[in-house]
Amino acid sequence: MFKKPQIVSILFVFLIAGFVLITTNCDFDVGALMEKIEAESLWEDSGHADRTSEAFWHWDEDDPAEVSTRCAKCHSTSGFEDFLLDDSVDNAVPVGETVECEVCHTDPDNGTLRDHTDVTFPSGVTIDELGPEAICMECHQGRKHSGDVDDEITDAVVPDNDTPSSDMGFPNIHYAAAGASLYGTFVQGGYEYDGNDYDAKFGHVKGYTSCIACHDPHSLEVRIERCGTCHTGITDPKNIRYYGSFVDYDGDGDMTEGIYYEIPDFQDKLYEAIQEYARDIGFPIVYDSHSHPYWFYDTNDNGVPDGSEVSDTNEYESFTGRLLKACYNYQVSLKDHGAYAHGGKYLIQLLYDSLEDLNSVLTVPVDIDDFERDDEGHFDGSAGPWRFFDRYGEVWEDCAKCHSAEGLPYFLENDAHIAQEPSNGLLCTTCHTSPPTVRTVGAVTFPSGASKDMGDSSNICLNCHQGLGSMVEVDEELADSSPWRPPSIHYLPVGAILYGTEVQGGYEYLGKIYAGRNTFPSHNGRFDTCVECHMGTNTARETHEPSDHNVHKPNPEDCVFCHGYDVSQPNQGYDPSLFKFSGIRPGSIPDFDADGDTVESLKEEIQGLEIALVQQAGIVFGSTLVGHNGSFYIDFLPLGWDENDTRISSFSDARLFKAAYNFQMTYREPHAYIHNPFYIAQLFVDSIEDLGGNIAIYTWR
User: Fold this and answer.
1) Rounded-to-integer distance, Cα 19 and Cα 358, Å
2) Disulfide: which of 299, 369, 373, 477 matches 352 by Cβ 3.0-4.6 Å?
3) Do 25 and 146 sit in the same domain of this protein?
4) pLDDT tens digits, residue range 113-147?
5) Whether 335 contacts 175, CB under 8 Å
6) Which domain, by its residues, includes 668?
């Protein structure tokens, strides 16, 4: 633990301490003294104390030899103290300082930390109510953001995205921008393309969400032993793969490798695309990570930065808007060496989008067919269910149970809802008390008031995948005076459809009989709960270890034996290559849509009924209608839905209101045809009848 010179110093300290105790008869905290000595020892070997690092000698040859006000905040102790006074550095600092104890401590002798909890990033976004990590992020946040790239392009006044301009400078995010990687789209440290959504702050379990929880605050080293709580057997953080990473991002077939190893292929492909694009516009480019301003003309077009090319006089000054965005993201991916841990999925999204943008105009696009941008829905932090609430700063109380990482655990423990902070998808602890222990959840109450218990951990799933509407809500809405706004069951109401009439998720008509829970009788007691189908049957999937398939999607290997054959030629035997979930049609299924086709898939049968329902609704409404995104639209041309069509925003006819609600169910739950096709078919046919349609052709009903 200690070096020889330090041992001598410690012995001397003990002699002095003993003398003080004897002569003054006062209390003396030897333990605190030892902690201070150890902290100083660790700091002395850290990058923060390394006076030989360029981070501290870069200004030695300047005249005068001082750290400028632009840099002193993070490259000197006095500069940081100056910054804390009024959020600016007013005076240059003579060279010779490093990042010393006073940066983090108001009183280093007793370890008192600074009361500094808010950090404003280059984007202008302030992250508040932080702990000691706020001090870290004052410097480890980067110096540029997405808006700076846009400003360079706008100020250059170019006619399009592919016109080179010498007025377009390269924005350098600077070194070790860990905070920008960590907070993702919250602070927009990378260049984010219009129309695309991005991961937010990397979600981690409680107790491991701050800088000093993972890094020793004095040595700065990763506390790898703490990772072993969940990531057993890991001695190098590069080998860690977050349990919410179920995609083979780089398409190399390895879904067990650490996230660190998923990123280089993206970087290599992007650099290749950057150079190809630069050649296409007539100004070849090279990059040198150690030499400002980093991007240079490749004068001999050999693809590498030769010594004569790496100079200020050869600075690249032919950026187009498209090229600048890609080059910025490429450097963002390189400057934070721990970005794979701080926000690896955010980084992958930046690189993927840069590649996609360049490929859209490259003469010979770079092959990224096997690359993946986003994760499985529960862990896809860029998806709407997680990012919708960013604009409000919180996930509303009524939504937090299902749209935040902490909402469901809070509800299960307190039987109540409270607003939560926006999250980057679920966490392991959303469904597990302490992985791999799954939360014990009893019967689940549906919007109709019905209570159901699936008998296993599928009850966790049912808490969110139950919908927000039911027959009860529709009748309550109809009790008010018209017009009525389009009803909503919300997204993925799998449980409501699976249980059918037992929970009355659809609108059921008086005098009709409806199917209850789909127990999938042909499955012989298997694959009739959420976890049995969606978590698979092999050990790897049950323990959430990445495998050949997305862990929260049904495993085709569980289905092909029965469903992997051509239903028009059942005697030909099964063929896994023929299997698609959308092609499933059990032999017991009738001709739901009465089109005479008894070999089409279940999905196509339900789609046939959807079309019939929309056509009948149009007759009642008095205009040709088209279904789109779960709603009825007036078909303007009519040639099917397009942007000129008008969504029906209110209903004055109760029949249309009920039918619109039932129609919405298969859009909100796109796999309803599997979860309970009989229930959906019954709802559609009865809606058609209520609208005055002829249902005599539906003999199965």
Assistant:
1) 72
2) 373
3) no
4) 999 999 999 999 999 999 999 999 999 999 999 99
5) yes
6) 465-701
